[in-house]
Amino acid sequence: MLRKFLPNEYVKSIYEISPTKLKERGIKAVITDLDNTLIEWDRPTATPNLIRWFEALRTEGILVTVVSNNNETRVRNFADPLRIPFIHQARKPFSQAFRKAIKQMSVKREEAVVIGDQVLTDVLGGNRGGFYTILVVPVSSSDGWMTRFNRKLERRILRYFKRKGLLEWEEQV
Predict the structure, then answer these.
(1) Torsion of CA 73, 104, 80, 21, to 10 degrees
(2) Predicted TM-score (pTM) of this structure
(3) pLDDT digits (tens, 9 = 90+) for 139-157
(4) Residue 42: exposed, middle, or buried by beta-carbon count in 10 A (0-12, 13-18, 19+)?
(5) Which of 12, 28, 3 is nearest to 113 (CA)?
């Protein structure tokens, strides 16, 4: 059961995820979380580095959809200026929003990756849906109030995986 919480890959930042390498692996689509994955949960717009990363994905022909548990206003204000489709109030870890995203992008599950900063929502939801999952270190050490509880459970799960040698993970201070 705990294996559903284990990401396929763990990186310190989305910028370690190479669009070229994704394309070489046959990836045609990225399903990504928003808050603390792409930008801080309280930052309204994309950073210049993030905009360049999205442009690199587009150059490689990789589609992107933001799948967030946040409200429509928050996600729309981020995604619309970038012309990125999104699904808000996704109810992750349920996998319905992930299936909706690949349907909208017209790709197969095997051609998509799920990227997120939370084990209990992004990784679990992606794994339950049969996707390749990539866990990233949160871009901010602070979280919205709803996420704080999840982080406590998440740290215990990640420490377990580290002890078992299943995941290289560094405790966040």
Answers:
(1) 120
(2) 0.91
(3) 877 666 666 777 788 888 8
(4) exposed
(5) 28
